[in-house]
Write a structure and sequence with these properties.
It is built from seven helices and five strands; from the N terminus they run H-E-H-E-E-H-E-H-H-E-H-H. It has helices at about 1-80, 95-110, 140-145, 165-190, 195-225, 250-275, 280-300; strands at about 80-90, 110-120, 125-135, 150-160, 225-235.
Length: about 300
């Protein structure tokens, strides 16, 4: 009896131990998913920090991009293409000397003189017109130096913004040169005569446009680099008496009388020449009138008592 009891006791204890082990495994399995979110929650602050760092880095990059964009905008504003020209009228004591001083000033500023002209009126007043061109950076110095030549009567300065045209011509020229390069490459690989002729015709047209735009670009660059000023310098009016002093000269009167007599004789002789030249026109008419007058007199009847 004791052995079966012992055996039964061992079996019961074994089943109890096995049940406790299964319960422990299930408890660990149930607690594992709960610990995973906690681990993720513990790791989350690190991930948020990384994301915050990335966002900060992106914000810094955006700030740098905005700053570079503003710098580019400021640089483009500073590089605007402006053509400046002016027209100035000056009254000086000696126009020729003032013009010489202006020429020396323009040379010192690194410019040159274009067109120039000089006129003298009936009263002896001199007017000098000079077309001066100086570097754009020293144009204001030229304008200030004009005040030293005399009295500035008028000053008109014009600034023409050609940035849009400059950029447009530059882009067209760049595209045309790329087209020219592609045409040259196609021409080197072309084998048919018809294709070669077509490519050469198109290449000629493109080169003509390239030359036109290059000429326009040179014109814009030169006028932007050198500003112009048309300066007119005239003598200051001199004070003169309104009425000249009266004087009498016998010789002057006699000379005037002789001159009038010669003019009168010349007029008479001119009329004689005109009548002589036009005689074929008026002479036949005059002879015909004389003939009619004589014939009328012959046919007139004699009255009684008149002398035979």
């Amino acid at each position: 009896m004791r052995n079966p009891l012992r055996l039964l006791t061992v079996i019961v204890l074994g089943l109890g131990l096995y049940g406790c082990r299964q319960a422990t495994d299930e408890t660990e399995a149930a607690s594992a998913p709960a610990e995973a979110p906690m681990a993720m929650e513990m790791a989350a602050p690190g991930a948020d920090g990384a994301m915050m760092k990335q966002a900060a880095a992106r914000g810094a990059e955006a700030d740098v991009a905005v700053a570079s964009g503003l710098d580019a905008l400021a640089q483009s504003s500073a590089q605007r293409q402006i053509i400046r020209s002016g027209v100035v009228t000056i009254e000086a004591a000696d126009a020729r000397k003032a013009a010489q001083t202006l020429t020396e000033t323009v040379t010192k500023l690194g410019g040159f003189i274009g067109n120039s002209s000089e006129d003298v009126n009936e009263l002896g007043g001199r007017t000098v017109t000079i077309e001066a061109r100086v570097p754009a950076a020293r144009y204001d110095e030229l304008m200030r130096s004009l005040d030293k030549l005399g009295t500035v009567l008028s000053r008109n300065v014009n600034a023409q913004d050609v940035t849009e045209e400059y950029v447009d011509v530059e882009a067209k020229l760049r595209n045309l040169k790329r087209t020219e390069a592609r045409l040259l490459d196609h021409l080197s690989r072309s084998g048919k005569l018809s294709d070669t002729l077509l490519v050469e015709r198109e290449l000629t047209r493109v080169r003509e446009q390239v030359e036109q735009y290059e000429g326009r670009m040179r014109y814009l660059k030169h006028n932007v680099a050198f500003s112009s000023a048309s300066v007119t310098i005239r003598d200051r009016a001199r004070k003169e008496p309104l009425v000249p002093p009266e004087s009498y000269s016998t010789g002057q009167v006699a000379s005037s009388a002789v001159r009038a007599l010669v003019d009168f004789g010349r007029s008479i002789w001119t009329m004689v020449v005109w009548f002589a030249v036009w005689s074929p026109v008026w002479l036949p008419g005059l002879l015909f009138l004389l003939y009619l007058s004589r014939r009328t007199r012959r046919r007139k009847p004699h009255q009684p008592g008149s002398a035979p």
